[in-house]
Recover the amino acids of this structure.
């Protein structure tokens, strides 16, 4: 006969609820007891029944994840890290790719996640109406993008502080013609491009540098967009001696454009990115490092904690550390170059 959870509990000398917590990676069980229970379960050939667990707990053991662009590096990295937390805890991921306005509107009109998920991790920024719709689900909510939002646990970074460190680095090197490649055409309601642009403008103002609109270009948060934007900046009557790209992917595109125009980095143009993409070190890119994977993992852990401790106060806003990483793409401007 197939062993039951009660058989495992009797053999291990613990309660059935302790067996359930141990085998699903829940808190409240010591490592020693957890290892003992797993050994007993393996010896008896016990496998937890998803359907039985769902009936007993009223849970679906499924987490809904909303993304604007599943194929982009940032969102893919967050999703992968979150899944690596959910899976060992016994949860599946139900993914909704809401890249188009039509798909997004249809999702929030129908709310297909209702009664199908135990929690929602949103990697898009909902407006007030969409936020209210998600709160109506009555499940824990978390995100890794945007600022503080009622009803959501937010795990993120200080975009302004990161941008300020990057642009101030270029100012301190002596650059006065500092361009920016932004992502103004990013996901709907995404505040990151706005926060980073405002910080860029503030640093220029603090340094007494007059803002030149010709030194801004949209790179669409892609490598191809970054290359196109850098080409646009180089066509200005007075091109920049340094460029801040709001993402590493756009910075890599900028490097490609500069190479195509036979310009040397950093001798002719300095470039700073934002993210510390896995390829940033390969190309020697100076960048603002943010813990992208860790944000996804922490958001997932906090959602599981809310499910395990429903009466506990939600974490609210968790700010992750960032730092400027100096590599080979920045240097003082050439004295003979345009300043």
């Amino acid at each position: 006969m197939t062993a039951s959870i009660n058989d495992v509990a009797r053999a291990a000398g613990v309660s059935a609820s302790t067996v359930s917590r141990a085998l699903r990676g829940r808190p409240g069980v010591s490592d020693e007891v957890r290892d003992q229970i797993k050994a007993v379960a393996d010896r008896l050939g016990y496998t937890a029944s998803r359907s039985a667990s769902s009936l007993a707990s009223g849970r679906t053991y499924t987490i809904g994840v909303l993304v604007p662009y599943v194929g982009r590096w940032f969102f893919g990295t967050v999703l992968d890290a979150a899944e690596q937390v959910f899976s060992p805890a016994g949860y599946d991921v139900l993914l909704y790719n809401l890249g188009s306005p039509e798909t997004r509107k249809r999702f929030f009109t129908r709310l297909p996640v209702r009664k199908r998920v135990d929690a929602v991790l949103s990697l898009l920024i909902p407006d007030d109406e969409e936020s209210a719709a998600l709160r109506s689900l009555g499940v824990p909510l978390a995100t890794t993008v945007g600022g503080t939002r009622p009803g959501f646990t937010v795990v993120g970074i200080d975009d302004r502080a990161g941008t300020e460190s990057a642009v101030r680095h270029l100012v301190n090197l002596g650059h006065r013609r500092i361009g920016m490649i932004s992502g103004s055409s990013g996901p709907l309601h995404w505040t990151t491009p706005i926060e980073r642009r405002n910080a860029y403008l503030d640093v220029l103002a603090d340094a007494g540098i007059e803002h030149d609109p010709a030194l801004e270009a949209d790179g669409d948060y892609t490598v191809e967009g970054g290359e196109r934007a850098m080409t646009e900046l180089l066509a200005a009557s007075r091109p920049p001696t340094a460029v801040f790209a709001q993402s590493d992917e756009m910075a890599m595109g900028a490097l490609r454009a500069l190479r195509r125009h036979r310009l040397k980095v950093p001798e002719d143009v300095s470039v700073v990115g934002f993210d510390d993409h896995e390829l940033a070190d390969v190309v020697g890119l100076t960048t603002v490092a943010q813990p992208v994977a860790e944000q996804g993992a922490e958001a997932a852990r906090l959602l599981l904690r809310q499910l395990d401790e429903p009466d506990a106060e939600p974490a609210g806003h968790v700010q992750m550390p960032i730092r400027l990483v100096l590599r080979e793409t920045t240097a003082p401007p050439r004295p003979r170059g345009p300043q």
Remarks:
- Residues 18 and 250 are 49 Å apart (CA to CA).
- The first helix runs from residue 5 to 12.
- The chain is about 40% helix and 15% strand.
